[in-house]
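step=encode ok
step=design start
structure_in=
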């Protein structure tokens, strides 16, 4: 069979023609993203909320700066120092635990010092509580007073009587050790309500606490079984 002859193509061949692109039409929907142009009310509300939030943040930040400056100025002017309290003397003549009943007689002398030159202190309430092995066995209220600048006052707290004290095995073991050595670990805490006086201005009441962790010898027949050492107490403003 002979080869079939292909007809000759005149000119260049570029393939089938490409149809023109179809036109698309956009019809905005009811909830579609029309932006502020389509919903100017929501745009205005959003801008208003952002403006209010920005103003509030700026006001709060400005107030914090002003308060910080005032506190810094007051501190530079008054230079407040922490009150210093010492348990200078302690006399323990009875401390006997019998059938969960503690018989005690403790006299404590305290020295409290205000080291500030421009701050006076009103001691509106002073409550002294005595603890042994975490158990409170007595509390007394001391006389309120005003303490002037760079002044020292002397306080006395007397705990005497009997009270029920429930001790576990571990606490009873500590009590037996203290009785053998005639030196007792007694914790005295002072709960205060005070006001500070800055010139003619008085502060609101604050409630600091003073913690005196003491090691007190038992005095028997007029003789101490050990030597009591003056102890500085811890002042806590919280």
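sequence_out=
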């Amino acid at each position: 069979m002979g080869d079939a002859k292909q007809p000759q193509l005149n000119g260049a061949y570029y393939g089938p023609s490409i149809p023109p692109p179809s036109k698309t039409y956009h019809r905005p929907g009811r909830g579609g993203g029309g932006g502020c142009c389509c919903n100017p009310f929501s745009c205005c509300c959003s801008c208003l909320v952002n403006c209010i939030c920005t103003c509030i943040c700026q006001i709060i930040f400005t107030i914090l700066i002003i308060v910080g400056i005032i506190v810094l100025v007051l501190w530079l002017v008054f230079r407040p120092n922490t009150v210093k309290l010492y348990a200078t003397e302690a006399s323990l003549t009875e401390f006997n635990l019998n059938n969960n009943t503690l018989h005690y007689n403790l006299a404590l002398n305290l020295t409290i010092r205000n080291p500030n030159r421009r701050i006076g202190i009103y001691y509106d309430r002073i409550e002294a509580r005595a603890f042994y092995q975490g158990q409170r066995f007595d509390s007394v209220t001391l006389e309120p007073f005003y303490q002037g600048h760079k002044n020292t006052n002397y306080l006395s707290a007397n705990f005497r009587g009997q009270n029920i004290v429930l001790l576990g095995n571990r606490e009873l073991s500590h009590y037996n050790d203290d009785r053998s050595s005639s030196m007792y670990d007694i914790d005295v805490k002072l709960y205060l309500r005070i006001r500070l006086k800055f010139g003619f201005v008085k502060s609101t009441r604050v409630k600091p606490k003073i913690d005196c962790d003491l090691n007190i010898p038992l005095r028997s027949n007029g003789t101490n079984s050990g030597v009591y050492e003056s102890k500085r107490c811890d002042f806590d403003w919280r």
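step=design ok
step=annotate ok -> Residues 40-78 form the longest helix (39 residues).
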